[in-house]
């Protein structure tokens, strides 16, 4: 959902073996007839949905979408240790505090349908779902944020990395890293590579496509997107760049990672 005047549900799929294959859709939705206040979560908008399949609405969840050129039906379980962002699950965001926890590697089943062809079954043994829950103040007013979720190869290490900029406030840079001994919070410096950018014809925003993250003695990561155009944009709505990324370098001894970057100019 976006924070514009009309709620919007958005989804996208990227083929990482051939990044020219990309599917994206936005749907204006109404919250009036969809609620989770007194029942299990059931946000069904006809062509796209987010639903709870367990009594607590989070232990087992599902999302599905059905459009002429693509669709999906994905179920995941909260089978992964939770990552508390900022170490406690709360941090300064905008004009107040926000709360955020991440379930970074849930067991995943389901199907994808691409270009109206046969359904593709998700390989559960080699798949995972990152489910993020954030609530409270929703944006740094007049500022921007860059957020990375990273999965480090051949380890259970996951990282939720925030860079938040707001006029009149000090910049915030912290990585919440879930390791075998718990969640560690590591400060860093964000260095976008402004020689690699993409300008959106929809929003007019210019986004960096590569970054260096310097963590001091904890290491350095080099992150880049897998495709230039991965913006979710609708005229009159807040755009968001939601892109697949790969990372090299080291963080706390871990090397090579993949995940997602989110960039929003609020």
Automatic annotation (TrEMBL):
<feature type="domain" description="AttH">
    <location>
        <begin position="9"/>
        <end position="136"/>
    </location>
</feature>
<dbReference type="InterPro" id="IPR023374">
    <property type="entry name" value="AttH-like_dom_sf"/>
</dbReference>
<dbReference type="Pfam" id="PF17186">
    <property type="entry name" value="Lipocalin_9"/>
</dbReference>
<dbReference type="InterPro" id="IPR010791">
    <property type="entry name" value="AttH_dom"/>
</dbReference>
<dbReference type="InterPro" id="IPR053112">
    <property type="entry name" value="Fungal_Dehydratase/Hydratase"/>
</dbReference>
<dbReference type="Pfam" id="PF07143">
    <property type="entry name" value="CrtC"/>
</dbReference>
<protein>
    <submittedName>
        <fullName>Kievitone hydratase</fullName>
    </submittedName>
</protein>
């Amino acid at each position: 959902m976006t924070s514009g005047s009309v709620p919007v549900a958005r989804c996208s799929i990227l083929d990482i073996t051939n990044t020219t294959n990309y599917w994206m859709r936005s749907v204006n939705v109404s919250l009036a007839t969809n609620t989770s206040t007194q029942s299990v979560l059931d946000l069904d908008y006809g062509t796209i949905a987010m639903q709870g399949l367990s009594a607590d609405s989070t232990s087992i969840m599902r999302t599905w979408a059905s459009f002429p050129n693509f669709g999906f039906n994905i179920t995941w379980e909260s089978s992964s240790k939770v990552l508390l962002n900022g170490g406690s699950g709360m941090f300064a965001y905008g004009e107040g505090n926000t709360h955020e926890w991440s379930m970074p590697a849930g067991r995943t089943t389901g199907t994808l349908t691409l270009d109206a062809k046969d359904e593709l079954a998700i390989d559960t043994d080699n798949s995972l779902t990152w489910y993020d829950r954030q609530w409270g103040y929703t944006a740094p007013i007049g500022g921007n944020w860059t957020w990375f979720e990273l999965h480090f190869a051949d380890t259970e290490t996951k990282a939720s990395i925030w860079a938040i900029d707001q006029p009149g406030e000090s910049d915030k840079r912290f990585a919440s890293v879930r390791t075998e001994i718990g969640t560690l919070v590591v400060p860093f410096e964000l260095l976008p590579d402004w020689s690699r950018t993409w300008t959106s014809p929809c929003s007019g925003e210019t986004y960096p496509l590569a970054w260096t993250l310097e963590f001091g003695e904890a290491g350095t990561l080099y992150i880049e997107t897998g495709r230039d155009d991965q913006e979710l944009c609708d005229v009159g709505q807040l755009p968001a760049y939601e892109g697949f990324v790969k990372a090299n370098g080291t963080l706390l001894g871990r090397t090579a990672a993949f995940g997602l970057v989110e960039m929003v100019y609020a």
